[in-house]
Design goal:
The complex is a heterodimer of chains A (319) and B (382). Chain A has 15 helices and no strands. By secondary structure, chain A is mainly alpha-helical. Chain A folds into 2 domains: 81 residues, no CATH class; 183 residues, MetI-like fold (Orthogonal Bundle). Chain B has 382 residues and is an alpha+beta fold. Chain B starts with 9 loop residues before the first helix and ends in a 6-residue tail after the last helix. The chains are: A mainly alpha (319), B alpha+beta (382). At the A-B interface, α1, α7, α8, α13 and α14 of A face α6, α7, α10, α12 and α13 of B.
């Protein structure tokens, strides 16, 4: 994991270096800033040094001081900028809740699809699954916004647009009304991000369960005279679900990409949103910090999926 | 190939058995034909590809032509009924932009004094069909009986008064080209690196796999956005930026393919027919090209059809966010870039239409890929 992160950091650093100009390019155009100030800034951020020196200095800062660099924009440490105002918390809330909801829908629907193979309902579910997969997240978010604002005219009630809360709730202490308001705002994100991951899971669950249902022990269970309900849910589903847990890790990149785009369109106060503003400002260190954060998120997710798999399936042991 | 055909009668079953000795290609084709949605998808894909090839013919105007009098014109209304009669020949009226005296909101008002009939195969701007034949025939246009013409905007116009239908047609060409171009770059990388890794194993395998994992550990969209940002500002032409986008998409996508190919090669390498070939004195190159590659081929075909929609989606997201295809080049995602803010969409909802094309195209490719995957899988019983 650690060597991977080192490689990731090197990649992201190289890409950032490819960016034309830097934060100072903009400052240079401002006649009010003196040349000495510019030079001092360049020295302070090491902008005048060659690539490897800057990279090593950056890595050294991370290792020795836990310093990921300073945002040019906010003049604050990178992680402070990225996570400002409980953004990390909201990223986790949005991603994890979306994931849970996707699974809550995809697994039962997958089971239903498998037990009703080739029926109209199975084809219908497959079609809707593929539709969800094929709608670009950003387009879906735009359409949801348009429906809410222009067609149903509920935009004035703050339904799901602009942030996670109405203004009056942002600073308010937690209450039932605030949670209600959060749900009011978060469901478009669930809908948009969730539908894109649903199809894969649904198809996978369907395939896995169909494979399991054709195994001999299921036949034995049926031959014993067990009810179909017990055969499916107790014998087959229990085993069919294991391969899906390894899918957990694979769905994560989708989740990150989905929540990135959705956070931008729906204006959610998440880390993704901070990364996006940094990208537009060419705030180098924050971009690198963001890339590292997303990679770490993926790696940790994969690790968790592996652990979960070993925990759920006693046959799997890692050495 | 026998069994699981409960719905057919016995006679057909017997008839069917006579055809059991099918070539692999025939079997794949048969299985492919069974996948209804897959077939529909394939037809749509073919139609879209044809539309992309003949884009200028379907586009009534040049995609960059600005109708200064018609900024944000809504889709032109087609009329079938005039005050006196109903006609099957649709006609349009000339519209002029007027401002609401109170809100100063622009609206387009129809002037119903003169009818402009929709005509097919009209003359318009000159272009080269398929890049070869010089012509100026376009699918449709509107002309009045006295010969005067009026622009028709089937899908409305954007902020510069550019016809969205024409832009969608030309943009579709780019959107559809992204997938195949990425495959052109990334598949050779996947095949060579995955093949080497799987065939030789050991240190090479170890190194290449770790290298590939690093590429996969970076979430695609954030890094692509960063790469897209890096591309801008070198003063590159939009074609060069497009190529840059293709290269960066290839860079992030080769690793996944390489990993699967490695796994397949690893499995095939141990099979008896490879051992037999080796015993017969075949060298590594021959084994890789003649014995292993054909076995990986079906995976490659399926992976290709499924990579195309994925790349389309990614390119669309990038372009929508402004870090993909740039003006003057256009793609479906780039067209949606105009619909970024909510007040814009509220007033000009037709700006969302190119997105529908993305959905249809991606859906069609996904169905086609799904059908192909089922068809080439030798373990599927049909």
């Amino acid at each position: 994991m650690l060597p991977l992160l080192v490689l990731v950091s090197l990649f992201s650093f190289a890409i950032i270096q490819l960016m034309p100009g830097d934060y100072l390019t903009r400052a240079r155009l401002d006649p009010q800033i003196k040349q000495e100030t510019l030079n001092a800034l360049a020295r302070r951020y090491g902008l005048d040094k060659p690539f490897m020196t800057r990279y090593l200095a950056w890595v050294k800062g991370i290792l020795t001081r836990g310093d990921f660099g300073t945002s040019f924009e906010t003049r604050q440490p990178v992680f402070f900028t990225l996570f400002l105002g409980s953004r990390l918390q909201w990223t986790l809330v949005v991603s994890i809740s979306t994931m849970i909801i996707t699974w809550l829908f995809a697994i039962p629907l997958g089971i239903y699809s498998a037990t009703h193979q080739y029926k109209a309902s199975d084809h219908g579910l497959t079609f809707f699954g593929f539709l969800g997969l094929s709608i670009p997240n950003f387009f879906f978010a735009l359409v949801v916004l348009w429906l809410l604002v222009a067609v149903f005219k509920v935009g004035n009630y703050g339904l799901g647009i602009g942030g996670l809360f109405d203004n009056r709730f942002i600073a308010a202490p937690w209450s039932l009304a605030k949670i209600g308001n959060l749900l009011w705002h978060i469901w478009p994100a669930w809908l948009v991000i969730g539908t894109s991951g649903m199809a894969g899971l649904l198809r996978y669950m369907r395939g896995s369960l169909l494979d399991t249902l054709s195994l001999q022990y299921v036949q034995t269970a049926r031959a014993k005279g067990l009810s179909e309900h017990i055969v499916v849910y107790k014998h087959a589903v229990r085993n069919a679900i294991n391969p899906l847990i390894s899918m957990l890790g694979m769905t994560l990149p989708n989740l990150v990409a989905g929540s990135l785009v959705t956070a931008i369109v729906l204006n959610l106060p998440t880390v993704e949103r901070a990364f996006w503003s940094a990208l537009q400002m060419q705030d180098e260190y924050v971009i690198m910090g963001g890339l590292l954060f997303f990679s770490l998120f993926l790696l940790l997710g994969n690790l968790l999926a592996d652990i979960l798999l070993a925990w759920v399936d006693p046959r799997i042991r890692y050495n | 190939m026998i069994g699981l055909r409960r719905k057919k009668g016995l006679k057909e079953e017997l008839e069917y058995r006579e055809y059991v000795s099918l070539s692999q290609g025939q079997m794949i084709w048969r299985a492919f034909r069974k996948h209804r949605l897959g077939n529909i998808g394939t037809v749509i894909v073919l139609l879209l590809v044809a539309a992309a090839f003949f884009a200028e013919f379907f586009a009534p105007y040049h995609y960059a032509e600005q109708f200064r009098l018609y900024p944000f014109s809504p889709p032109t209304t087609f009329h079938f009924r005039s005050e006196d009669s109903f006609t099957l020949r649709p006609f349009v009226y000339k519209t002029t932009r007027e401002f609401d005296p109170e809100t100063y909101q622009p609206t387009f008002v129809e002037d119903s004094s003169k009818k402009y009939h929709i005509r097919f195969f009209v003359r318009g701007y000159e272009y080269r069909l398929l890049g070869l034949f010089k012509t100026n025939v376009h699918l449709f246009g509107a002309r009045a009986n006295d010969g005067s013409e009026v622009p028709v905007f089937l899908l409305g116009t954007d902020t510069f008064g550019r016809d969205l239908l024409s832009r969608t047609m030309i943009g579709g060409r780019i959107s559809l080209a992204v997938g195949p171009l990425v495959i052109l770059f990334s598949f050779p990388l996947s095949i060579v690196l995955g093949g080497l890794s799987g065939y030789y194993g050991g240190g090479i395998d170890m190194f290449l796999q770790r290298f590939g994992e690093a590429f996969m550990a970076i979430p695609a969209l954030p890094i692509l956005l960063a790469m897209g940002a890096a591309l801008s500002g070198f003063g590159l032409s939009s074609t060069m930026i497009f190529l840059g986008i293709i290269v960066s998409l290839s860079l992030i996508s080769w690793a996944g393919g390489a990993r699967v190919i490695r796994g397949q090669v690893l499995a095939i390498r141990e099979m008896d027919f490879v051992t037999a070939a080796r015993a017969a004195g075949a060298n590594d190159l021959r084994i890789i090209l003649r014995h292993i590659t054909p076995n990986v081929m079906s995976y490659l075909v399926v992976a290709a059809t499924l990579t195309i929609p994925y790349m389309m989606l990614t390119e669309a997201a990038l372009s929508f966010l402004g870090y993909g295809v740039r003006e003057p080049m256009t793609s479906w995602g780039q067209l949606l870039n105009a619909a970024t803010n909510i007040s814009g969409i509220e007033e000009h909802p037709w700006l969302l239409i190119p997105g529908i094309f993305i959905v249809i195209a991606v859906l069609a490719f996904n169905f086609m890929g799904d059908a192909l995957r089922d068809a080439v899988d030798p373990f599927t019983i049909v």
